[in-house]
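COMPLEX REQUEST
Ligand: norvaline
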Amino acid sequence: MVNHFLKLSDIAPEEIQPILDRAIALKKGAPSSALSGKSVAILFEKPSLRTKLSFWVGTEKLGGNPVYFAPEEVGLGKREPVADVAQVMSRMSDVAVIRTFEQSTIEEFAVDSTIPVINALTDAEHPCQALADTQTITEQLGSVKGAQVAFIGDGNNVAVSLGYAVAGLGGHMTVASPDGYKLPSADLEGANTYGASAGGSVSQVTSPEEAVSGADIVYTDVWTSMGQEAETAKRLVAFDGYQVNPELLDKAGKNVKFMHDLPAHPGEEISDGLLYDDRSVTFDQAENRLWAQAALMEKLI
Ligand code: NVA
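STATUS: Structure written out below.
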């Protein structure tokens, strides 16, 4: 049985905290040679800065060898069937890190993969980001359990994975989105079921002010994700009033922290300069991709 990480809920709720604890230990300098003599194939259909860098450097830190394929190189499912790419990668490498448009493509890949497949972002989920985010919340608040997280904007891939992770760790996430851009109802229900044993929850509202009231964390992401560029003009109208800015943060808890998975679009989902606000922990979040994914790879291998 191969351990894949195609969506956040592929790991049990009680498995999350040990990964975060290990990530924090690795960040503090704990040694690891978990990938010694092993190769990690990194294959992306979309652009990337943090994910590519963090998997590449993370693999090297664990003693392994990263092999990166840019979006135009492989032609996953076009130049060569997804199943064949999966079989070839399985013969020559030990972990596959895949970023695709459709969630169904990575699921299809995993069927024929005999090595662990890690979702490095699809249209449906961004589970590695959620691990780094909950590591960051743990560092900031001491624990995700009982934390109030407000996610403002699109109920997208980042929101979905974060919802599962926060709920699974016993935290509470409120997502504020306009009609038409709310969390998929299956994920709203799924995250609540996933988090039930930990006492966590995810709820959906429309008002950003309602979501941030009492929040320990205010989180946002781009209004137009990769692959949705043709909808940009329509989305700019739909998300009017959903910008995270200092005034909105002032309405949250006194010690609120601001989070964004990056890249950000100042003037759209955040005001100019918000990444550099004293309350922003966005660059800690970015760095934690490295440590959270290293801990994940150790576990999956
Ligand atoms: N929701 C964004 C996240 C980018 C890291 C996207 O999918 O483009």
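REMARKS: The CA atoms of residues 31 and 62 lie 8 Å apart. The mean pLDDT is 97.
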